[in-house]
Amino acid sequence: MFRKTVLDNGIRVLSETIPTAHSVSVGVWVANGSRHELAHENGISHFIEHMLFKGTSRRSAQQIAREVDQAGGLLNAFTSREYSCYYVKVLARRLPLAIDLLGDVVLNPLLDLDEIEKERRVILQEINMVEDAADDLIHDLFNKTFWKKHSLGFSILGSAVTVGAFDRNALITFLQQRYRPHQLVITAAGHLDHDRLVEQLITVFGDLNGIWSGPIQSPPDYGSGIDVTQKSLEQVHFCLGTRALPQNHPNRFAAYVLNALLGGSMSSRLFQAIREDRGLAYSIYSFLHCHSDGGALVVYAGTAPEDARQVVDLVLKEMHRLSRAMVDEPELTAAREQLRGNLLLSLESTENRMTRLAKNEFYLGRHLSVKDVLAAFDQVDAEDVRRLAESLFQDDFLNLHLLGPVDPGEFPVLDLTLG
């Protein structure tokens, strides 16, 4: 059962009661991510996420870890482009501890100078790790070029330069500005009572106040282009993408089906044509990046340098086919069933259900039931997919970024078109 309450200070509380569950997952979500940063602040949201686990006025970092472990629970966090999340998963009877821990780390961080310097080194190593992992690095490179100068193209981790410049005052100022009641959504799913949950949250979060009125985020623009980053590697890694839909677009379910058909599974067209039929890549897939006001549909592959041009051409060919000819009913049914199965299987996790509550609130402003989602998948037909593919797969929006030992005489003259 879904319920929603807005606390007097503006914090939104959403819960889903699952009587048969043994666990409960609760998360504090902040409507702040890397896209809300200025260029010199890039990476500060992620830095703060790390620092909130490094001790509070009541607990040391070791005590935080020990209390979670002794409860048999999980405490974690992540930062995305549009929000940050701090969450705990525990046995249902330990929910009061989970709320107390989350409130402590979010509201009472020490931001100790020594811990800041230690965590700075940790994050710089995290940045270096991405630089060394070509299959991760290519996504950051693609985002930077695809979103042009828009903040959606910022790295979530930031750069060595920006991370190296953050001081304690910058972290405190950013935290005090952004972690305000109207920016917070608290979600919980599992074996819980909503009214008791709200009472416990009022005790911990009820005194938080203040308003953040930051600059209005501008939607991104879309263009096309080819970018090459030379690097000594065994493979060429590339991302080829085009514009897609925002999270709340009425055609988003057709976009999910389109992605599933293109490269979202082992039976998808790209996996079959490039890996299974020709053996040109070990890793080949497509995915959707959907944000509040824009999106991208991206294909990733890693292949031998001598095969890179052929693999890119095959991706363009499949995009062209989907935009011109309707898929047959068995293939469409299989894609819909894959999406239905993925959704239903994810619901076995209280953590996934808690996350789903938050995303619906952030992007839709309302609760969308599982029944409604399944019905929406069933309503997508072959013409919906073809029409959407025709709209998205256009030459004017295609972007290609290649990383590795790329032949400089081949791709700069590539005719990046679908025709």
- Look at the helices and sheets and give the structural class: alpha+beta
From the spread of the alpha carbons, the general shape counts as globular
Total count of strands: 11
Task: Report the sheet-strand fraction.
Answer: 15-25%
Query: Order of SSEs, N→C?
Result: EEEHHEEHHHHHEHEEHHEEHHHHHE
What topology, given as strand order, has the largest sheet?
1-2-6-3-5-4
List the uncertain runs.
none
Q: Give the N-terminus to C-terminus distance in angstroms.
A: 50 Å
- Evaluate the radius of gyration: 23 Å
Which whole number gives the mean pLDDT? 95
Number of helices: 15
Largest sheet, described in full? 6 strands, mixed
Roughly what percent helix? 40-55%
Describe the protein.
The chain is of the alpha+beta class and 419 residues long. The protein has 15 helices and 11 strands. The chain has helices spanning 44-51, 61-70, 95-107, 113-132, 134-146, 160-165, 168-178, 194-205, 252-262, 269-276, 308-324, 329-346, 350-363, 370-379, 382-392; strands spanning 2-6, 12-17, 23-30, 74-79, 84-91, 184-190, 225-230, 236-244, 281-290, 295-303, 399-404. It has a 6-stranded mixed β-sheet, sandwiched between helices. A 5-stranded mixed β-sheet has the order 7-11-8-10-9, sandwiched between helices. Helix 9 packs across helix 12 (329-346). The longest helix is centred in the first third of the chain and has 20 residues, at 113-132. The chain is globular. The N and C termini lie far apart (50 Å).
